[in-house]
Design brief:
Largest sheet: 4 strands, mixed
Shape: globular
CATH class of one domain: Alpha Beta
CATH architecture of one domain: Alpha-Beta Barrel
Distance between the termini: 18 Å
Order of helices and strands: EEEEEEEEHEHEHHEHEHEHEHHHHHHHHE
Strand content: 5-15%
Radius of gyration: 21 Å
Strand order of the largest sheet: 5-4-2-6
Structural class: alpha/beta
Oligomer: single chain
Length: 436
């Protein structure tokens, strides 16, 4: 999954002796043939065409490019660091202009960065989360939504900026023992109605079971985090299984607020020290990743400040969602302190800890987000005839549908990037069973 420093790649090559993960399972094939830059055949014992480069993939596993379904990229070097770790697509969940244009331009014109999709500016109430980022000097002032009468104007402005989906914040602070301004239910409904009229998916940032239920009642398509508290009403799973809704657990973020989640249990240090991963973490990312762990809010309840987040409970929630068949997407909530790209390796490890088998965890970062976000050209390793040349790498303008298409409708173009073949799945989680 680690990209080489040389981004030149032969147009024709054969990778042989490799295990092939196709986005859902490990196939029986051991060879992948690439002609004119696209995969044209996957099989056993394939012969190379004339003048094709031959790569011995023995001991490795060929994967589709990974998709991180929840990031917060600020600069193109964040996208470059993601690509180093095999993340070929970052789905950003909050990035106001002017950074939005800078990141979009980098993804459209450079081959050394991950592709980039974004919600742009998320919808929140005046004084609501994350307006504190303006106070902290992290981002410039951005528009907020005072009531339902402003919803259409807000969504129309985001669509004009070229966003790929809409993000809505419903964080009342109750989980943290705080009280924050929050969008009214009527406003959330109006925002979702306007977004769907523009054929945009709506993802909601909710910090509790109560706010998650409110989001789903208003018609949200997905949760950008899953709730960190138990579901007292016991009906959240039923609501999520309706209308093809999906969830991005962002376990790495939850682990950051849990006591004892350090080293191999969820922190950064073992990633920094990892013999295969550590050398590829750039100096700036390394500096951020060694910063002190974020502290709970100053006014958080005493039991939370003392014991931290109940991460075992968070893992149980993830397991229940998975067992209920709710699509889970691998997302890190990546900010510099979590590391773009490398953090997704930890997120997949935590999903395995929550009960997914390694191939299911890999699917959360390949085929599942490709299906849920209607990304037709990625997430699966499958052949495509060379007679249909791949489209130029650019920002998509396709329409998003509230109900994602079935996988059988997805056509695959697997853009090949030079990448050191990964070792078997033990690199995903050294404590979990390897992919069979």
């Amino acid at each position: 999954m680690l990209a080489s420093e040389d981004f030149s790649v032969p147009r024709n090559l054969l990778i042989h002796g490799v295990r092939v993960f196709d986005g859902t399972s490990v196939s029986s094939a051991d060879s992948v043939l690439v002609v004119d830059g696209v995969i044209t055949e996957i099989g056993t014992g394939l012969a190379p065409p004339p003048r094709a480069q031959v790569v011995d993939g023995s001991g490795g596993t060929l994967l589709p490019g990974l998709i991180d379904s929840h990031v917060h990229a600020q600069r193109p070097d964040h996208l470059a660091q993601a690509l180093v770790f095999g993340v070929t697509t970052e789905l950003d969940m909050f990035r106001p202009p002017p950074h939005l244009g800078l990141l979009r331009d980098a993804a459209a014109t450079r081959d050394d960065v991950a592709d980039f999709r974004s919600a742009g500016t998320g919808a929140t109430a005046p004084g609501g989360h994350p307006t504190q980022l303006v106070t902290w000097g992290v981002c410039p002032e951005f528009p907020t939504v005072s009531g339902p009468e402003q919803a259409e104007q807000f969504v129309t402005a985001r669509v004009a900026e070229g966003v790929d989906y809409i993000k809505v914040f419903i964080e009342d602070g109750s989980f943290w023992g705080q009280s924050r301004q929050v969008l009214s239910h009527a406003t959330v409904e109006a925002l979702i109605t306007a977004a769907h009229a523009h054929h945009k998916l709506v993802l909601v940032h909710a910090d509790s079971g109560a706010t998650a239920r409110a989001a789903l009642d208003a018609g949200a398509d997905a949760l950008a985090h899953h709730p960190n508290d138990p579901d007292p009403a016991g009906d959240l799973l039923d609501r999520l299984t309706q209308d093809a809704r999906f969830v991005i657990p962002t376990l790495k973020m939850s682990a950051a607020f849990a006591r004892g989640r350090s080293g191999a249990e969820g922190g950064n240090q073992d990633l920094l020290d990892h013999s295969d991963l550590g050398p590829y973490i750039d100096s700036q990312t390394r500096q951020f990743m060694t910063a002190p762990r974020p502290s709970p809010p100053a006014d958080a309840p005493k039991d939370f400040t003392t014991t931290g987040l109940d991460f075992a409970g968070v893992l149980r929630i993830t397991e229940r969602l998975h067992q209920a068949g709710v699509p889970l997407l691998g997302g890190t909530d990546a900010i510099p302190v979590f590391g773009h790209g490398v953090g997704l390796h930890r997120e997949l490890e935590l999903l395995v800890e929550a009960g997914l088998i390694p191939t299911e965890a890999l699917a959360t970062a390949t085929s599942v987000p490709a299906r849920c976000f209607d990304l037709h050209d990625r997430g699966r390793t499958r052949p495509r005839t060379a007679s249909r040349p791949p489209a130029r790498r650019r920002r998509s303008h396709h329409r998003h549908h509230r109900h994602p298409p079935h996988p059988r409708h997805l056509a695959q173009r697997h853009p090949l990037r030079p990448r050191r073949l990964p070792r078997p799945a033990r690199n995903l989680n050294p404590h979990a069973p390897t992919v069979p």
